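Field log, afternoon session.

UNIT: design team B
ACTIVITY: writing a sequence onto a fixed backbone
BACKBONE:
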């Protein structure tokens, strides 16, 4: 397990720089196996040194690219796969370990497709407003090609929407995809309202 200060969604891309000895060992071990490890959000504490408080719902990450940097650091590119729930945390020896339950994959539906469309429209509106205002949307694609499968498209929207870590974790923990998209649309709409208020008031 690799506790982090960020949330990984299925289909999300996770770049990692690894330097702490225990995680260097984790990388070596998973590269010899199936290149997969679990990622969970740290609720309180630091990524380095241990002693953190961790969430119990996370995502399996699969290493798709590995490189080596200066000072014995390792650069990884990982992709999110299945959602998981921690059944039991084990001892952090030689690195964090846990027993995991793979959570069921979600299926597409017409209702989910409509919810995806609403969330995608809110995402486009928010990023266009942010870019217009110079509010930190540089480097983010306003238009993205979503998968045709609504369930996959839903995860893509979660992964590419500008949200804080705790909002992202809330979405990850939701067990129903249509409700997740409705929650995402509300989160984005709240941000839209804030930006529109700033534009209107000239603040």
């Amino acid at each position: 397990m690799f506790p982090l200060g960020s949330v990984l969604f299925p289909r999300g891309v996770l770049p990692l720089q690894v330097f702490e000895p225990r995680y260097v060992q984790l990388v070596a071990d998973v590269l010899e196996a199936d290149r997969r490890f679990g990622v969970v959000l740290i609720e309180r504490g630091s990524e380095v040194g241990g002693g953190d408080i961790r969430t119990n719902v996370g995502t399996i990450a699969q290493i798709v690219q590995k490189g080596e940097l200066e000072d014995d650091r390792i650069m990884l590119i990982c992709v999110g796969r299945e959602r998981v729930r921690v059944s039991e945390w084990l001892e952090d020896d030689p690195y964090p370990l846990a027993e995991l339950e793979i959570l069921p994959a979600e299926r597409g539906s017409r209702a989910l497709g409509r919810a995806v469309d609403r969330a995608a429209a809110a995402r486009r509106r928010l990023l266009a407003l942010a870019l217009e205002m110079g509010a930190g949307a540089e480097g983010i694609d306003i238009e993205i090609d979503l998968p045709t499968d609504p369930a996959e498209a839903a995860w893509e929207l979660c992964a590419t929407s500008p949200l804080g870590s705790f909002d992202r974790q809330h979405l990850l923990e939701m067990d129903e995809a249509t409700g997740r998209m409705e929650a995402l649309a509300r989160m984005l709409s709240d941000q839209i309202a804030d930006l529109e208020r700033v534009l209107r008031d000239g603040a």
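LOG NOTE: The mean pLDDT is 90.
NEXT ACTIVITY: expression trials, pending approval
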